[in-house]
Structures are given as structure tokens and as C-alpha cells.
Specification:
Blueprint: H1 17-37, H2 41-62, H3 64-70, H4 74-87, H5 93-102, H6 108-124, H7 138-158, H8 167-181
């Protein structure tokens, strides 16, 4: 399963792009769980962040035409297609999530905020005073990682209606769900 994130991604215009990215999200989720089990909370936070960012890439790809209709200029439409879908810049995750919310993805903004908090935690670690980071302890951050990876799995399952899953995605989803059940 881990080899999946080493393969080159299909082009965003490819029919199997969304499935490949969902597999990537599941692999990142599995890595987050593995890191949590080893007590590597900061690494787990980074992998949970990457998993959510990958889910955002899939949502942006699936909703690209509707998102472009929300854009105010041709430049914004081009940016969505050429930059947002393949890269999902960290600095643009909040506005992109807000756009997805306008399309009916009600909880995306909340999960994106959690992902960005974990991204900060990954780099800075726990902050007992909560001056910079929103997690005082490793345990608080670990609980947030579990929440976010659970959300990733939920979203992957929801996207089954819109994305043709490969056998590899089905198997990875089943494996990650089993691991979450005993976490």
C-alpha cells in the first residue's frame, strides 16, 4: 500500500486522478495511524494534514466546473484549474474550503481548520501556554489526529458515489477502517 504514494500521479484531467488521490489520502491516513501507535505525534499530525489536503484536492477536482462558476474573473478560473486542483496550496486551503462550503460541503471548513492546526503542531510541537499552538499536550494533538483521519475515511466513503474506486482503493479503505476501529 505504501508504494502508492511513490507513483507519479495521473494528470488532473485524467479519469483516474480522483481515485489515485483517494488512495494517496488513505496511505497518508495509514501512516498517521502508524506514527500515532509509535508515539510520533508530530509526524502523525503531518500525515493527517497531508491526508486531508489530498481529500481537498479530490473535492476541488470533482467540483471544478461549479467552483469556476463561483470565480469572479477568468484569472481566478484559470488559477483554480492550474494551481488549486493539483497543488492545494496550504495558504489557500481556507478560501478553497469556503468555496466548497458554498457548494454544499458544510463541514469542509471545520476539518480544514483542524488540519491547519495540526500542521502548526507538526512544526512546533505542544505549547503548554497555548500562545502559538492550540494543543497543550501530545495527547490533545493525538486525539485531534484521530478525529481528522476519521473524517478523511468518512469523506473517502462518501466519495464512493462520485469516484470509480479501484480495487486498490477498496482494499486500502477496508484496511484503514479496520485500523481505526482498534485505535
Amino acid at each position: 500500500m505504501y508504494e502508492a504514494i511513490e507513483r507519479p500521479l495521473p494528470k488532473p484531467s485524467s479519469a483516474d486522478y480522483a481515485s489515485a488521490r483517494l488512495l494517496e489520502a488513505l496511505v497518508e491516513t495509514k501512516l498517521a495511524i502508524d506514527f500515532l501507535r509509535r508515539g510520533l505525534t508530530r509526524n502523525a499530525a503531518g500525515k493527517a494534514f497531508q491526508a486531508w489536503r489530498t481529500v481537498l484536492a479530490v473535492l476541488l477536482k470533482l467540483e471544478l466546473e461549479r467552483l469556476k462558476a463561483l470565480a469572479k474573473t477568468e484569472e481566478e478560473r484559470r488559477w483554480l484549474e492550474e494551481r488549486a486542483v493539483p497543488r492545494v496550496p496550504t495558504t489557500k486551503m481556507i478560501p478553497l474550503s469556503q468555496m466548497l462550503r458554498e457548494l454544499g460541503y458544510r463541514d469542509v471548513s471545520a476539518w480544514t481548520n483542524l488540519a491547519l492546526n495540526l500542521h502548526d503542531y507538526q512544526y512546533h510541537g505542544p505549547d503548554p501556554d497555548m500562545a502559538l499552538i492550540k494543543y497543550r499536550t501530545r495527547e490533545e494533538a493525538a486525539r485531534a489526529v484521530v478525529e481528522l483521519v476519521s473524517a478523511v475515511v468518512d469523506y473517502v466513503q462518501r466519495l464512493r458515489e462520485k469516484v470509480q474506486f479501484s480495487e486498490e482503493v477498496e482494499k486500502a479503505l477496508e484496511g484503514v477502517r479496520a485500523e481505526l476501529a482498534v485505535l
